Amino acid sequence: MAKQVKLAVERRDASGRAAVRKLKARGVVPAVVYGGKEKPEPLQVLRRDVSVMLSHASGENILVELEIAGENATRTALVQEVQHSPVGGDVLHIDFHAVSMDEKIEADVPLEPVGTANGVKNFGGLLEQSLRALTVSCLPRDLPDKITVDVSNLNIGDSIHVRDIKLPNGVAAKVQPELTVFSVLAPIVEEEPVVPEAEAAAAGPEVIKEKKEEGEGAAPAASAPAAPAKEKEQKK
């Protein structure tokens, strides 16, 4: 379940870029809490306390008990968004969404495969994850950090759908039950290109000719006719 952490915050009166720069110089992060029956309220929190809060989080959904300085009551909220600087990654701003512990909320919970699919391990298949997070409805205290799904029994061609996932008590999926979450695909086999028979026939067999050495295989010269025998001397 989502871990609930306490966070000391203060009300923030100043706004604008100049005020934000001054807060940053003091190691303070501007924030706002909205939702519920109260109006959005600007807050500020020490950067070191934000770092501690994020380090204790075991998932994307962080349930926070906001302790506002000078007030006895606290406000329960989910961390809706944390804005980071593109250079250095410093936290620039935090949005909190106020919730009531006795009212259901909707949130996206990450889906995580567990085990190695049989079709991948023994037949070279590929595990495909079509859904990265599942939208659920539950009370804040029942909100899971993540939802794990055992994929070890999947063979090639098998799939796991939303309706097949066993959710924790008090948690209900808010998406179509027939949506595919995981599936095992057949391995991709690369085939050698096939030359069409017509092209192969047109090309014909390869003929290798070698240059004959000079005089080799030449037809023998015709024999000169024998000289006619001399006529016998006439008798005297």
In short:
The chain has four helices and 13 strands. The chain is mainly β.
Task: Summarize the structure in words.
By secondary structure, the chain is mostly beta strands. The chain folds into two domains: 95 residues, Ribosomal Protein L25, Chain P (Beta Barrel), CATH 2.40.240.10; 81 residues, Beta Complex (RNA Polymerase Alpha Subunit, Chain A, domain 2). Helices cover 13% and strands 34% of the residues. The strands form three sheets. The protein has a six-stranded mixed β-barrel. It has a four-stranded mixed β-sheet with strand order 10-7-9-12, with no helix packed on it. Strands 8-13-11 form a three-stranded antiparallel β-sheet, with no helix packed on it. The longest helix has 10 residues. The chain starts with a strand and ends in a 33-residue tail after the last helix. The C terminus is likely disordered.
Based on the structure, what is the oligomeric state of the protein chains?
single chain
CATH topology of the largest domain: Ribosomal Protein L25, Chain P
Order of helices and strands: EHEEHEEEEHEEEEEEH
Structural class: mainly beta
Largest sheet: 6 strands, mixed, barrel
The order of strands across the largest sheet is 1-3-2-6-5-4
Distance between the termini: 149 Å
CATH superfamily of the largest domain: Ribosomal Protein L25, Chain P
Quickly count the domains: 2
Q: Name the shape in a single word.
A: elongated
